[in-house]
Structure formats: structure tokens, C-alpha cells
UniProtKB/TrEMBL annotation:
Gene Ontology annotations for the cellular component aspect, listed alphabetically: clathrin adaptor complex
InterPro entries for this protein: Clathrin_a-adaptin_app_sub_C (IPR003164), Clathrin_app_Ig-like_sf (IPR013041), Coatomer/calthrin_app_sub_C (IPR009028), TBP_dom_sf (IPR012295)
The species this protein was found in: Trichomonas vaginalis (strain ATCC PRA-98 / G3)
Region (Disordered), start-end ranges: 1-28
SUPFAM superfamilies, sorted: Clathrin adaptor appendage domain, Subdomain of clathrin and coatomer appendage domain
Source lineage: Eukaryota, Metamonada, Parabasalia, Trichomonadida, Trichomonadidae
A biological process term (GO) from this entry: intracellular protein transport
Name of this chain's protein: Clathrin adaptor alpha-adaptin appendage C-terminal subdomain domain-containing protein
């Protein structure tokens, strides 16, 4: 699928056949609406959302629960990243603004090839006049589970001086999570099947305000998993989500509950790799 209008890419590996039982998480990749990518790429540039200036950990944490924000700034440029998802694809837009009183040249953003992501790029203008901006876009799709995203390179030339910044991409695999509907019996049957310690991530945190609402917020904003309407006791929140990768479908089951005044998190993944990614996100977000 040509996501950015660059011609037909190489054929993707064959998708596994769908499995009828929803508890197997065996779903084929959903079809992409015809105009979905066009709509994403034609969206107006987003407004800068403040993030702690060039604090790598703070920027990563900001983007765990947010899909737009300032990801880099210096005396010459401000870079705002916007992430828009149309399952199973994600569009990353780097909006680069010229803050100088002159012209920036050799402007570019590069995400290097990695085995776990399919990447298509749509370059922006390599020259930015005073007070203007340009947009570099990338269409990403998961090929296989990953824990750490790739780095990316930001470059420009100002006043005959070249600037090259190698930065951590503030992006994680759970941006690709799609809702997965399950009833009470299917959810807890599948939960009971995932018994390996390597397939369970855990954490706990002290609630601020309404604990149930806070648990729902973490589940939906950080892991993109909607709350399932299950008949569970008060103070319990459950959800399920899938990630359609080229190498197969990945699934996560979430149980958040209140115990001894704390919010407890239990998330099970269908593979140790996806579970390790969950644990890393939890550790950073709740740090």
C-alpha cells in the first residue's frame, strides 16, 4: 500500500489466515479506508504543545500519553511532532519552524531502516525562509514486536554552520493498538491461558483524584486500549487490544484494580516481546 504517494512499495509478507475464535487474537489486518491516508496528510499543522525542552526522558514520557508536542527546539528551529493513527498505520509529521532572521538550508529528517518497522517517507522543503515552516512525514507500520523505537536524525544549515542532531524517536508500539471486543467469559478464559511470568507486566501507583477514572485514563491514553463493558466489581477496569503486525497479530489484556488504596496494573501479552514493551512503558510512565 502506497501510504504517501511514492509509488508501489515491495509486497508485504503474506498475512496469517484469520482465526475464528476472538480469544486467539487471530485477526487479519483490517482494510484501510480509501481516503484515510489522504485525510491524514492533508490535515493542517498542529499547534505546538509544550514539552520540557530537550529533556529526553521527559519528552518520551510526554508522548506516552500524548500524540503531539514539541520534540526539539534550539535557538534556530522548533520541531513539533504529530502522530496520527489509521490502523494498522501511523503517520508521523515533523513540523519544523524557522526561528532565525534568515534562511535555513539542507533541512532534513531521517529515520533509518530497522527490521521491525516498515517506513515510507515524504520529504518536506529543504529550505525554510524566515518565519516559515516545512513538514516531513513518515508512514510507519509494524513488522514485528519491538521494545525500543529507532533514533532519528534532524539536520539543517544556518549561517554556514551545519547542525546534526541524533535523537530518540518519542514513539512506542502501543500507538498502533486497535480496540478488541471481548465478553466476560472470553476475556477471563484468555487471561487464564496466559500463565507464563514472561507474559505479564505489573505496576502500581498511588491515585490522584478518582482512582477508577485515573486507571481508565492510563489504559486508554498510554496503551490505547478502550475499557470493556464487563460486569466486574467496582474499582476494577478491564480492556483488550491488538496490534496488527506484518509477522502476525499481537494482543494485550489489561486488568487494573484498587487494592489497599493503590491502583494495581496487570497487563498480559501474547508474546514475551510485547510484554517487555508493556513493562518498559509502565516503568517510564509511572516513574
Amino acid at each position: 500500500m502506497d501510504l504517501l504517494g511514492l509509488g508501489s512499495p515491495a509486497p508485504a509478507p503474506a498475512q496469517p489466515k484469520p482465526v475464528a475464535k476472538p480469544t486467539d487474537f487471530g485477526l487479519g489486518a483490517p482494510a484501510t479506508p480509501q481516503n484515510a491516508v489522504t485525510d491524514l496528510l492533508s490535515a493542517a499543522p498542529v499547534t505546538n504543545v509544550p514539552a520540557p525542552l530537550n529533556d529526553k526522558e521527559a519528552i518520551k514520557k510526554h508522548f506516552l500519553a500524548n500524540d503531539q508536542g514539541l520534540c526539539f527546539e534550539d535557538a534556530n528551529i522548533a520541531v513539533n511532532l504529530s502522530i496520527q493513527v489509521n490502523h494498522p498505520n501511523a503517520i508521523l509529521s515533523f513540523n519544523i519552524q524557522n526561528k532565525t532572521g534568515g534562511i535555513l538550508t539542507n533541512v532534513g529528517v531521517h529515520i533509518p531502516p530497522v527490521p521491525f518497522l516498515a517506513v515510507q517517507s515524504k520529504p518536506g522543503a529543504t529550505q525554510i525562509n524566515r518565519g516559515e515552516m516545512t513538514v516531513f512525514q513518515f508512514a510507519l507500520r509494524v513488522r514485528q514486536p519491538f521494545i525500543d523505537p529507532p533514533s532519528y536524525t534532524l539536520r539543517y544549515t544556518w549561517s554556514e554552520q551545519s547542525h546534526n542532531e541524533v535523537l530518540d524517536l518519542p514513539f512506542n508500539i502501543f500507538k498502533f493498538t486497535a480496540p478488541f471486543n471481548m465478553d466476560y467469559n472470553n476475556f477471563f478464559a484468555r487471561w487464564g491461558q496466559l500463565t507464563s511470568p514472561a507474559q505479564q507486566a505489573t505496576a502500581s501507583f498511588n491515585p490522584v483524584g478518582d482512582p477508577t477514572n485515573q486507571m481508565k485514563q492510563v489504559m486508554t491514553s498510554v496503551f490505547k486500549v478502550p475499557v470493556l463493558p464487563l460486569q466486574v466489581p467496582p474499582g476494577n477496569v478491564c480492556g483488550a487490544g491488538i496490534i496488527n503486525a506484518e509477522g502476525g497479530v499481537l494482543g494485550i489484556l489489561c486488568r487494573f484494580f484498587i487494592e489497599n488504596g493503590k491502583c494495581n496494573v496487570q497487563i498480559k501479552g501474547t508474546s514475551p516481546q510485547i510484554t517487555a514493551a508493556v513493562q518498559k512503558v509502565l516503568d517510564l510512565y509511572l516513574k
